[in-house]
Amino acid sequence: MGALVIAGWGTVRGVSGSVAGARWRRGEVLGWLGKRLILAANRDEFYHRPSKSADFWDSSNEILSGLDMEEGKEGGTWLGISKKGKIAALTNYMQPKIDKNAKGRGALVTNFLTTDLDSYSYLKKVALEGHLYNGFNLIAADLNTTKGDVICYYGNKGGPEPIFLNPGVYGLSNSLLDTPWKKLQYGKQLFTDVIKHCWELTKEDLVQELIKVMNNQEPQLPDPAIEDQGKEYILPILNKYAAVCVRCPDYGTRTNTVILIDAEGGVTFTERTMLNADIDQWKTSTYQFKLQV
């Protein structure tokens, strides 16, 4: 699974603020009141791979995510959030050859959303078993209105330990965190440009502007870093793969997700997902709720 995740959280000089009604005040950008999160993500996958659109898992309305329904991988996911303030996002690490007998990576997200472990402790545990999986990157967060927010990252093709992420803007594709792939750098630039002007937008318009960013199909070439990592595997689709939004005949961006979380724990989760493996059919769903922490 290819993917692109761009997130901003915490205080960024000159761009923190607070929510006022349906509009954003001037200066309100990453992490209103100096905390919280704006996340925009793409899921790139084969169009015919069976999946469920984002929804709460059961009647408790506790955990929200899309779900992979591929045989043998059922119940895994690429991105999810719980009302207890847990968020996780997964991308695969692009490698020319994969081990078909490796453990399913989607369970790394679902297990975090259901565990009592904090994000750093969970990623430390995952790091001990990282060799059992094909390449992956995992962002895990604990958002707590009273105790403060913690966001961590671990990639099993990088360093041996998870790292804490300081407030800022981060990008993650199919290499290590903030690897300077041109499409990732371009996506972060577009993301930041939208965020800088979000005081002019309603929340709904901000979501739509971020979805527009995640559907940019301009290839960012040449990019020797992608070619070197992907080898002969990536060359046939390089022109399509080197864009924020990947659009190949049978594979590409099939889900856009935007998550906004404000200082009071208010969550807006919007998913735009492809229907029937048809690039002309899409469904958009929005969920709004408050974190219970």
From TrEMBL:
GO cellular component assignments: cytosol; Golgi apparatus; mitochondrion
Domain of life: Eukaryota
Organism in which the protein naturally occurs: Salvator merianae
Name of this chain's protein: Transport and golgi organization 2 homolog
GO terms (BP aspect): Golgi organization; protein secretion
Alphabetical list of InterPro entries matching this protein: TANGO2
Pfam families, per database record: TANGO2
